[in-house]
Write a structure and sequence with these properties.
Strand content: 35-45%
Distance between the termini: 73 Å
Structural class: mainly beta
Order of helices and strands: HEEEEEEEEEEEEEEEEEEEE
Number of helices: 1
Helix content: under 10%
Largest sheet: 9 strands, mixed
Number of strands: 20
Length: 270
């Protein structure tokens, strides 16, 4: 009997079966809006004429914060974009929201690194993402950059070429680095803004929707952080974190592009 009880307790607290709880910081306020430059030299102010918002977890959020948990230099979330005329998703642009937990400055600016994924498996104990969309997207914000504690900075980026998903659900992991002359370096004082709602949450977003998969589910949903200090832009499902008293928790991000029918390649019939 004792062995049975011990086994049941072990299952209840086993890593990955439930998200652990971090503490949220106080509500963050908006700081400056910046534009980042991609590897092709394109600034984030460029707008494609046919681009529309296909995912928005920022607008309408009652709570804008980040986690007190550490490390928090790589933050990930799944997403499902709004339904369009098909299931092929093109992401042209994004607005990311960087949270500064300290008053700090970077003479040589910032580096933003993003890895998008074409899938999400919230039950995977090794890696919740498995199919990368290209390589890591890298953007730079020229210095100097001055930041204030407990503020978030809106940064616009353009993908060249655009990113293409094969379905409506994907994921993204973001890392921010500051550079004061010794090269870009990750630090817990630069992380991603998180959105949430006081309990009970509505389970809805301004554009797009939450993903339900495995242990990643309502009402908490949650975010992933690099608990083991890994830098591979991926997470085991035990990296999932939530906040006590808050629902609808997710990375704050906006994606713009298009959802279209699958494009057929040309062929001939003889």
């Amino acid at each position: 009997m004792k062995m049975l009880i011990a086994s049941l307790l072990a299952m209840a607290v086993a890593p990955g079966l439930a998200g652990a709880a971090d503490g949220p910081m106080s509500n963050f306020v908006q700081g400056p809006t910046l534009s980042a430059i991609n590897s092709e030299g394109v600034g984030g102010s460029a707008i494609h004429g046919t681009t529309v918002t296909i995912f928005d977890s920022f607008t309408g959020a009652a709570t804008l914060t980040t986690t007190t948990g550490s490390p928090r230099t790589f933050i990930g979330s799944p997403f499902t974009v709004a339904t369009g005329s098909g299931t092929t998703v093109r992401i042209d642009e994004a607005t990311v929201f960087m949270a500064s937990t300290a008053t700090q400055s970077f003479s040589n600016g910032l580096v933003i690194r993003m890895q998008f994924w074409d899938d999400f498996d919230g039950s995977n104990a090794t890696a919740v993402f498995s199919t990368p969309i290209g390589g890591v997207q890298t953007f730079t914000v020229p210095g100097p950059v001055n930041l204030t504690a407990n503020t978030f900075t809106q940064i616009n980026v353009v993908f060249a070429p655009p990113l293409v998903l094969n379905g409506l659900t994907g994921g993204v992991v973001i890392n921010y680095q500051g550079d004061n002359g010794a090269g870009p370096a990750s630090n817990d004082t630069l992380t991603n803004l998180l959105r949430a709602q006081p309990e009970p949450g509505t389970g809805t977003l301004a554009v797009g929707s939450f993903v339900t998969s495995g242990t990643y589910a309502a009402p908490d949903f949650g975010f992933f952080r690099n608990v083991a200090n890994q830098t591979n832009f991926n997470h085991p499902n035990s990296d999932r974190r939530t906040f006590t008293g808050l629902d609808d928790i997710l990375m704050a991000i906006q994606l713009r592009g298009a959802v279209t029918p699958v494009e057929l390649t040309g062929f001939s019939v003889e």
